[in-house]
Design goal:
The complex is a heterodimer.
Chain A lengths: L1 H8 L1 H13 L5 H6 L5 H5 L3 E3 L12 H9 L1 E7 L2 E2 L6 H16 L5 E2 L6 E8 L11 E9 L8 E10 L5 H6 L4 E2 L3 E6 L1 H15 L3 E3 L4 H13 L9 E7 L5 E7 L1 H15 L4 E3 H19 L7 E7 L2 E4 L3 E4 L5 H14 L4
Antiparallel strand pairs in A: 1-13, 2-9, 2-10, 2-16, 3-8, 5-6, 6-7, 7-9, 11-12, 11-14, 14-15, 15-16
Helix pairs in contact in A: 1-2, 6-8, 9-12, 10-11
Chain B lengths: L1 H20 L6 H16 L1 H11 L10 H16 L4 H12 L5 H9 L9 H13 L4 H13 L8 H5 L1 H5 L8 H11 L7 H14 L3 H13 L4 E2 L15 H14 L45 E2 L6 H6 L4 E2 L11 H7 L5 H21 L8 H18 L4 H11 L8 H8 L7 H18 L2 H28 L16 H25 L4 H14 L2 H5 L9 H8 L4 H27 L8 H18 L15 H6 L18 H11 L15 H12 L3 H10 L15
Parallel strand pairs in B: 2-3
Helix pairs in contact in B: 3-4, 5-6, 5-7, 6-8, 8-11, 11-13, 12-13, 17-19, 18-20, 20-22, 21-23, 22-23, 22-24, 23-24, 23-26, 24-27, 27-28, 27-32
Classes of the chains: A alpha+beta, B mainly alpha.
Chain lengths: 349, 726
């Protein structure tokens, strides 16, 4: 045991190193985030963000991936950084995950890793989604089943999911050592049992952990403003907001605003105290207050007493339970950046 | 057994020599030896029996064969009483497996093969080769393998057995042998024995035979070594281990071993018991499940690395400390006591980061993000937190993720949910820099403290006391390490400077002083809370002398006077003791300062405070000058008059103090048993006072005694004029 020999030679250095290793969470995490525990959330929540212009992603992202991304409704989760995840190993991950799923299904029966089974898993890297150089490349996963009836070429996608990090907080990403890959946002579409199996494979393989990611009302308001703001460039067709009012019996309110009206309201707020290229949380709050006031004038119901549950436009929808749909690639990066931020806020350290 | 084994070895040597030489020379000495041997042989029926079994011809009839019966009986007797020597095992095993007589005889012999010490590997190899010949009855084959499994730990070395792994493996296809062969393979498997075609064979067998536990266990082991070749999930209800040992052999074996006092057979248990028991009643979405230890599925590990789940016991851990492979999920280490010992040796930052991610995630999900809290998982939460606490205590350090979690949790905590555990975790946190200690710790705690019950107040003070103790211990350990210069390079867990640590300690002590003052007022100077507060100051007063932290901090008046005027003698006694220790610290500090070895400055104010307290104590307890000008508590004359207490100055001296009046009455009765009238003031007179104080000491008031002996310069009966802090 060489380390022991070293320890006897320089006991002090050894103990010092040892001590710092367990406590200091690796490199500089403590100094950046440990300083204000308890207030981590408050400090890391962004109160201003840049106005995002719609961007045509089809030139950057593989159209096949893009098509798959905009097709489904995704249930999103956050996950802690993955240990020893390598983008170069995606093929081998495909085989292992396939074997794992089969093995999980037939509890107790071993499965050889490698040969084709009734199931095919494809991992692929999605280029073009990452915004900064600190963002890891997104990963797209599809599970195809080869149904026994139609043997041969007929494969059906039974589950798909993706992991991504768009404009993740640079400071946080840099504080992680190179052993870790941070793709904090996970979307899944397909059978819940498969989602659970995939998650558990990731947890066992990369020592990362998943948790459900709900979108709080602030997040939903940001999304509403974000989508409304781009109406002049892309027609959002409608802005639909859903509330649950805690009345007896509970009251669900669905509130659809004409896109032009919504945009004009937003624009008027922006004109009053718009600060260049960024939008502040106050403006978003004013915007929502304006909409709520209008509703009150007509129906005498304070929407602010309830909870905002869903925001929908032609560009996509988001539910507070963590279900999202992005129907257009144009605003995809902005939405994913917002969700990445939500996911990073959930990180335990 | 040595007595037996030696002659038999002789016998074997001679017989082989005999074969080659008998026709040749007729040397005289040889003949003499031969004679002696024959004589010896004739005397020892066991050797005769061995000879018989080694030479018996194939096809010898066994029915009605009295010679055979006789020899079997002899061997049986020896085997069951002393066990068989390695040579005897070889001979008998060869006889049994070669099927020279009927298979019944073979079974009979196998059943009494109880080794005394070890079993030679060659004998097993030969046995396996007989197995390959294929003459043996299936029943005998099974019995042989079961015998090998039973005595496996006694086989002297296993390298050659591992070399013929392939031969042994080929028997898995025999349906009735398969369970036992799987077990044997399980015991022999090393990383290099795992080949893709073997994996495939076992998987084929599984398809044929279904979920057999023996196949599952062997495959699971293959997965441990080569997770890249095989995927396997254990069903939640899985019987642990192989059950192939023959209990009759085991009983005989342990009896023989016991008699021979041989420690060869230490443990027949299999390491499978290490496997974490699957929790069948697991909640569906529990975040508080410690994952099972499993090996790394992706990283190419060197063949020398030992997966953590292969560890058997502590000696095994020590032997392999240099080649242990961290598990795929660091969190799993918390579930295995053995692995915990290994954590201490881990030098890998990433490993701790992984552990912290898992731990933080579990805690956050369960206690902060989870919306519904059901009472049924309280037991689970308690168990988890207790595991965490005991882990942290074992490592003598709190995990950072626990700390981050606690800071967040304190803000939403109601003060009653899992109180013991939360406060336990809280007391483990590392030194908090003074710049943020107020925000993260004091503010939420203060809110809870003032709005909660007396018991919560006590537990908070207790928790802070234990926190302070740990900080001080850290400091004293590290100060010892860097013994040259404690003031500059002292390393505390967060690379904190000595002054940083001192700032935090000052903050903590002052905080407790504040909340204790107000808390005592709120709770009507409850004895319990006072006791916990004094516990805390017992730690504080020893900071300099006991923990080498150059700091002396006095308790606030709000703690000191309630203790001095407390109605129970224990509190006053403890206060005296605390004051005595303060004195010792200050005296020592003064001395140090004078000798200027370690220059540090204790402010005049501290000395002044201390002297003020001592003067108050002495005036109050001895000089009957309570509430007089110059004391800590002064009361206006008219106010005292309004209380209508006569001689209010003396109401708190050692005789009339509510804490001591019981003793005074007692003393009075003992001194003047004949007196009808109680005149406590007579205790003050002459020698009586000295006797009275002696009496108090003898009642167990040691603190008082220490205080008197150190702080009162002369113990004359009535007037003690001055005190000296130095």
């Amino acid at each position: 045991m060489e380390t022991q020999g070293g320890a006897t030679a320089t006991p002090r250095n050894q103990t010092v190193m040892h001590r710092s290793s367990r406590r200091s969470l690796g490199v500089e995490l403590t100094s950046h985030f440990g300083c204000t525990p308890g207030q981590l959330t408050a400090i890391r929540t962004q109160t201003r963000r840049e106005i995002s212009k719609p961007r045509n992603l089809s030139e950057l992202v593989d159209p096949e991936h893009l098509a798959a991304l905009v097709k489904e409704e995704w249930r999103i989760s956050y996950l802690t950084p993955m240990y020893q995840f390598k983008h170069t190993q995606l093929q081998s991950y495909s085989k292992r995950l396939a074997a794992f799923i089969v093995a999980e299904k037939q509890q107790g029966i071993g499965v050889e890793v490698g040969p084709e089974m009734g199931l095919k898993v494809v991992f692929s890297a999605v280029h073009g989604l990452a915004e900064t150089e600190d963002d890891a490349e997104a990963v797209f996963i599809q599970i195809h089943s080869k149904s026994a009836a139609a043997e041969g070429e007929a494969t059906k996608v039974v589950w798909s999911g993706w992991l991504c990090c768009v404009s993740g907080e640079v400071e946080y990403l840099r504080s992680l050592s190179t052993d870790f890959t941070c793709l904090p946002l996970f979307g899944a579409s397909g059978a819940v049992s498969l989602t659970t199996t995939v998650m558990s494979w990731f947890e066992r393989t990369f020592d990362c952990y998943f948790g459900p990611l709900g979108i709080d009302s602030t997040g939903l308001k940001w999304l509403a403003a974000l989508w409304t703001g781009c109406h002049p460039d892309i027609n959002i067709r409608y802005l639909k907001l859903s509330w649950t009012i805690p009345a007896q019996p509970p009251l669900d309110v669905s509130y659809t605003v004409h896109p032009q009206d919504a945009w004009e309201l937003w624009n008027s707020i922006r004109e009053v105290d718009g600060l260049g290229d960024t939008v502040g949380i106050e403006e978003v709050t004013y915007f929502m207050k304006g909409l709520e006031m209008h509703f009150f004038r007509h129906f005498r119901i304070y929407l602010s007493a309830g909870t905002l549950t869903k925001v929908t436009t032609a560009l996509g929808s988001a539910h507070r339970d963590g279900k999202i749909r992005i129907t257009s690639g144009d605003m995809m990066t902005s939405v994913l950046a917002l969700l990445t931020e939500c996911a990073l806020l959930k990180m335990p350290i | 057994m040595s007595k037996k084994s030696d002659p038999s070895r002789l016998d074997m040597n001679y017989s082989s020599e005999n074969d080659s030489l008998s026709s040749g020379r007729s040397d005289r000495s040889l003949r003499v030896a031969e004679k002696a041997r024959k004589k010896n042989e004739a005397e020892d029926p066991f050797l005769l029996a061995l000879k018989y079994f080694s030479q018996v011809e194939e096809g010898t009839p066994w029915k009605g064969n009295d010679v055979l019966e006789w020899h079997v009986a002899v061997v049986e007797r020896v085997a069951l009483s002393q066990g068989l020597s390695p040579e005897a095992i070889s001979v008998l095993l060869d006889f049994a497996l070669s099927s020279r007589m009927s298979s019944q005889q073979c079974v009979r012999i196998l059943k009494i093969l109880v080794p005394a010490t070890v079993v030679p590997q060659d004998a097993i190899i030969q046995g396996v080769s007989w197995l390959c010949v294929g003459k043996m009855a299936m029943k005998t084959q099974v019995l042989f393998i079961r015998w090998v499994l039973t005595i496996f730990d006694l086989i002297d070395s296993k390298d050659q057995l591992r070399a013929i792994y392939g031969f042994i493996f080929s028997f898995v296809t025999e349906e009735s042998l398969c369970p036992y062969i799987c077990h044997l393979l399980y015991l022999l498997t090393r990383k290099e024995s795992i080949r893709p075609y073997r994996v495939r064979k076992l998987l084929d067998l599984q398809v044929k035979m279904g979920k057999q536990p023996f196949l599952m266990h062997l495959l699971a082991l293959y997965k441990v070594f080569s997770p890249e070749l095989v995927a396997l999930s254990f069903p939640s209800k899985m019987k642990g281990g192989f059950k192939n040992h023959n209990s009759t052999w085991k009983v005989a074996l342990s009896a023989v071993q016991k008699r021979n006092n041989a420690g060869v057979l230490t443990d027949l248990r299999l390491n499978l018991s290490m496997r974490t028991q699957p929790n069948s009643k697991k909640r569906k979405f529990s975040h508080l499940t410690i994952p099972a230890v499993s090996s790394v599925p992706l990283r190419v590990s060197s063949s020398k690395a030992l997966p953590l789940e292969q560890l058997r016991d502590f000696p095994h851990l020590l032997e392999n400390l240099h080649r242990i492979e961290l598990p795929a999920q660091m969190g799993s280490m918390l579930g295995s006591p053995l692995a915990l010992h290994y954590i201490d040796c881990v030098r890998d930052n990433s490993a701790f980061l992984r552990l912290n991610f898992w731990l933080g995630h579990s805690l956050h999900e369960e206690f902060l993000f989870c919306r519904e809290a059901s009472s049924q998982n309280m037991a689970e939460a308690t168990r988890f937190l207790n595991t965490l606490i005991s882990t942290q205590r074992l490592l003598q350090e709190g995990f950072s993720s626990t700390e981050v979690f606690l800071y967040r949790f304190l803000r939403v905590w109601d003060g009653s949910l899992l109180r013991t555990q939360i406060l336990g975790l809280l007391s483990d946190i590392a030194v908090v820099p003074s710049s943020r200690i107020k925000v993260v710790l004091f503010e939420p705690l203060m809110q809870l403290f003032f709005t909660s019950s007396l018991f919560f107040k006590c537990s908070v003070v207790e928790c802070l006391n234990s926190m302070l103790l740990k900080w001080l211990t850290w400091h004293s350990v590290y100060a010892l390490e860097d013994e040259l210069d404690i003031s500059v390079t002292s390393q505390t867990p967060q690379n904190m400077t000595l002054s940083g640590l001192m700032d935090s300690v000052v903050e903590l002590v002052q905080f407790v002083g504040r909340i204790a003052t107000v808390g005592l007022q709120l709770e009507g100077y409850h004895t319990l809370l006072l006791s916990f507060t004094l516990d805390f100051y017992e730690t504080v007063c020893g900071m300099y002398l006991k923990y080498d932290l150059p700091l002396v901090l006095m308790p606030p008046a709000g703690v000191f006077y309630p203790a001095l005027l407390a109605t129970n003698p224990v509190s006053v006694d403890r206060l005296c003791q605390i004051m005595h220790r303060y004195r010792a610290s200050l005296v020592s500090a003064k001395l140090q300062e004078r000798q200027s070895q370690k220059p540090f400055h204790i402010s005049r104010k501290t000395y002044r405070e201390f002297n003020q307290y001592v003067v108050s104590m002495v005036n109050c307890l001895w000089n009957s000058r309570a509430f007089m000008p110059g004391m800590g508590i002064e009361l206006a004359e008219d106010l005292l008059a309004r209380s209508k207490v006569t001689e209010c100055c003396s109401t708190f001296n050692l005789i009339h103090h509510p804490a001591f009046i019981g003793y005074a009455v007692d003393f009075h009765q003992k001194c003047w048993p004949e007196r009808k009238e109680l005149d406590l003031n007579s205790i003050k007179m002459g020698k009586c006072w000295d006797w009275y104080t002696e009496f108090l000491f003898s009642e167990g008031l040691w603190g008082l005694k220490e205080f008197v002996q150190s702080s009162l310069s002369h113990r004359t009966s009535s007037r003690v004029s001055g005190t000296d802090a130095r």
